[in-house]
Structures are given as structure tokens and as C-alpha cells.
Amino acid sequence: MEPLRVVVRRGAIVEAVHLAHAVAVRNGAVVASAGEAALVCYFRSSAKPFQALPVARAREDLDDRDLAIASSSHLARPDQLEAVEALLAKAPASEDELECGFEDGSRLRHNCSGKHAGMLALCRARGWTSRGYHLPDHPLQLALVAEIAAAAQVDARALRTAVDGCGVVTFALTLERMAHVYSRLERIEGGRSVAAAMRAHPELVRGPGEPDTVLMERLPGWTAKGGAEGLLCACSPDGLGLVLKVADGASRAVAPALSAFLVSLGHPVDELRRVLLENSRGEPVGEIVSD
């Protein structure tokens, strides 16, 4: 099947076109695809629920809000920042220990601060030094490489890695393997707790109107997490894992492409079908839709 096609229409004219690859996997087998299932890209922030698994297993004192914000790419909304602060307090750790970099002059406001707070909580549980925890040779990052490799059922020695936007390790996998990873989320130790926490607090995972948050709000039992460069991964309550990757990395194409793929799987989410195109005055001037 050809890649999904998303068009940007200003007035009556198609002004831009985005292509998206998508794969769905159940029980280790591809059950639906559009484009290239063997395409390799980085897991980016879609890996966060799996990076939260070791802390979920190690810290019985963490609640749903803690695990949801540890899996998030938040928008620095007040409720999200409050959740990060609460997780730091439980770690215990200070904002100054966060190694995610700065956003608007603040480590806390960085959209990966929840993940990093969870990493600090795991360092405390394991007795690892927090200094340099983002570096690839730190015990934390070595443990996460092993975690992702085990989830993907690949050899950790062959797992290609790079540096993510927030400084920690990110992982290269085929789209088929990413969908397979998500299909297994609730079967991995700690995964059921992390997935349930994300579904309990979808507004913490990203934010209102965002594709992963909307999917969890509209499809009962589904868990979803977006990533940079036009990536989104999700899983259904009956063990279907899916991944969608916009070829040119355009995040504006994710919702319409995801909508089209979900329709093909029998799970329509109308709110994702169309993104309104507005000018700088907030006036509607067109739309972004699957073609």
C-alpha cells in the first residue's frame, strides 16, 4: 500500500503535501500498513512509556500522576508543572539536578522534565549518582538501552542509538519493531501500570487537542504517545500496536494521517480528521486533511 497522503489546502488550492508511513502489528505479525514497514527512524519521545517502566517497577510510592508525567512531553501547563514538581519531591531531587536543558530559561518548563524527574527517581532507587545521568555510559542509560532492546526483542548490542533533543539516549528501530514494542506494552512488567496512568491522565501526557491526548480521550483502553519529527505510537486494549511516521517530520500532518489509518483499522476518531489552517490573526484560511 502507498503511504498516506495529507494535503494542506489554502482556499481551494493544495499548497503542500505530506506523506506518512504507518504500520499495525498484533502478535508479532503486521496486520495493516501504508508505506514502508521497514523504514528506520528514532523512537524519540514515543519511547517515554518504556523509559518509565524501570521506575514504575522500582518505586512503589509513585501514583498515576507521577507515572503519567514521567511518560509525558508536556506543554508546561500549570497542572503539568505541578506534577513534575511533585515527582521531583518524591525522588527526592531538585530542579537543578534536571539535565534536560532549558526552555524559557527554566529546566522545569522543558517538555521532557517529567521524564527526567522519573530518571532521577530511578537513580535514587538504584543508588546511582545523579550527576551525568543523561550520558550514554551512565548506568541509567545503559539500563534503558537494555529495556528498549528487550521490549523490541532485538539484540541490545545491535541497537543503534543517538542523542535525543533533551540529551539522553534515543533508539533507532524499524516502524514494524516500534509497533511491535507498543503491542507488548501491557505484557511487560510495569507496563500495565504505566499505560493505565497515561489513560487516567491523558491531559498530562501532552495536552488538549494534541493527537496522543485526543486518541486516549476518544478510544477507551487505548494508550498513545507522540514523538518528535512526526512520530506517533499507540496500542489498543486487545494488543494491537501501531506507529505512524510523517516522512518529512511535519507534526501538523500527524492528526489527519493518524485519523485515516485508524479509520482503515475500524477505529475512527473524528476530532483528528481535520486540522484547521489559520493565519496570524486567528482567521480560518484552509485545512489540513488526509487525501
Give a short summary of the structure:
The chain is of the alpha+beta class. Helix content is about 35%, strand content about 25%.
Overall body shape: globular
**Gyration radius, to the nearest Å?**
18 Å
Number-wise, the strands total: 11
Amino-to-carboxy terminus distance: 14 Å
| Number of distinct helices | 11
Percent helix, as a range, is 25-40%
**Mean pLDDT across residues:** 98
Structural class: alpha+beta
Order of helices and strands: EEEEHHHHHHEEHHHHEEEHEE
Report the β-strand fraction as a percent range. 15-25%
- Low-pLDDT ranges: none
Q: Please summarize the sheet with the most strands.
A: 8 strands, antiparallel
Describe the structure.
The protein is of the alpha+beta class. Helix content is 34%, strand content 23%. It contains 11 helices and 11 strands. Strands 1, 2, 3, 7, 8, 9, 10 and 11 form an 8-stranded antiparallel β-sheet that branches. A 3-stranded antiparallel β-sheet has the order 4-6-5. Strand 10 (274-278) and strand 11 (284-290) form a beta hairpin.
